[in-house]
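Question (not urgent): is this output format expected?
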Amino acid sequence: MTSLRHNMSTATVERTARDVHLDAARECILDVGWRRTTLTEVARRAGVSRMTIYRTWSDMSQLLGDLMTREWAGVVAAALAAEPAQGDEAHRLAHAVVATGRALRDNELFVRIVELDPELLLPYLLARRGRSQDAILDLLTERIDRGQSSGSLRAGDPVTVARVLLLAVHGYVLSGHTMVDDLVGEDALSDELVTLLERGLRP
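Got this back:
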C-alpha cells in the first residue's frame, strides 16, 4: 500500500501542468467561490485553452475533487512533519490527529468553502467517504497497527480505531469554533481533545 505520506512528499517535489491548473482553480474558488467558478475561467487563469482543461476534467465537480484531495493531503503532510518528538506513541498520535484537524480548519481553501459553499462538504459527512478521507484512514490504520504490534497502543481492530479517530476529528474541525468563547480557548479545546484521544489509545 502506498502511503499518503509518500504521495504527499512526491507531490511537493514535482510540479506538473496539472498542478498549475489546480492552482488556477484554487485561486478562482478563493476569489469568487465554487458556484461561480467555471472551467472556462480556470483555463483563462491557467493560461491554457478550455479544451486543455476539459481533457482532464469534464466538469467542476471532478476538478474540485482533485483539488480537495491535493489540498487536504498537503495539510496532513505539514501536520505530520510537526509531530512532537517527545511523549509515548499514544500522545504523539493523538497530537498529530488533533494538529491535522486544527490545520485543516485554518486552511484558507477549507475556510472559503465553509463560508460560501458549505453544501460541498455534506456528501463527505452524510453519504460517503472521499478519497482524502480514505487515504487518511489508510495512514492511521498503518500507524495504529504498528503501535499495537510494538505494544505501545491498546489492542483493537485498527481499521475501526482509525475510523473512530477520524469521526472524532470531524466534529472538532466543523464545530470546534462553536465551543470557543471567553470560558474556553482554542488551545484548551485542542489540548483536551488530545488528552481524550491519547487515553483511548494507550494500553
